[in-house]
Amino acid sequence: MKISDAARPFETRAERAPQGDTLTLNVNEVDRELTIEPRVTLLDALRERLGLTGTKKGCDQGTCGACTVLVNGRAIDSCLTLAVMHAGDKIVTIEGIAKGGELHPVQRAFIKHDGFQCGFCTPGQIVTAVALLANGKKLDRDTVRDEMSGNICRCGCYPHIVDAVLEVMSPLDSARGDNA
Predict the structure, then answer these.
(1) Residue 164: phi, psi to the nearest 5?
(2) In CATH, 17-96 is 3.90.78.10
(3) Do 56 and 121 meet the contact criterion of CB atoms below 8 Å apart?
(4) For 143-179, what is the HEC assignment?
(5) String of DSSP letters for 59-119
(6) Residue 13: its pLDDT value, please?
(7) The domain at 105-176 falls in which architecture?
(8) Is the pTM here over 0.90, yes or no?
(9) What residue ranges of the chain have pLDDT lower than 70?
(10) Nearest to 52 by CA among 146, 126, 107, 123
(11) Which residues pair with 69 in a beta bridge?
């Protein structure tokens, strides 16, 4: 070994890691350019690369719903998909649900009905509820429970969450002319 080799500082982990490709993700109506490896999940890109920590890392297996985001209006588990697969898609995280400083009606209803305790599952629950309400289906307690079943609440706030979703649905029914 030469002295010059020994004197060189050790490579950092970041220097050894593959650098990846540059892509643009449209997140909360803002184009964000980042360089990531192809193996980075959408969840990790949002949290670790873009600093959007509202989307939670729960099970990392797609079973708890804490990482739910909207992609082109559809609720998905962001831990189960790669970020590179969503270049060109419209991604909405919990940070993008409120508009212009006004809470979304689902967020207001969760507060009113105490649809959270520890708050860990709340972002995923709210995002899922927004997608559920956007599909325009007529909902009852059982349907809401079934549709929200992919989101686990360890505190057991399920009745409050269902109440919140049904409250937001009621004005939507009135606006559509449905008889509730």
Answers:
(1) -65, -45
(2) no
(3) yes
(4) HHHHHCCCCCCCCCCHHHHHHHHHHHHHHHHHHHCCC
(5) SSSSSS-TTEEEETTEEEEGGGSBGGGGTTSEEE-GGGTSBTTBPPHHHHHHHHTT--SS-
(6) 46
(7) Orthogonal Bundle (1.10)
(8) no
(9) 1-19, 171-180
(10) 123
(11) 76
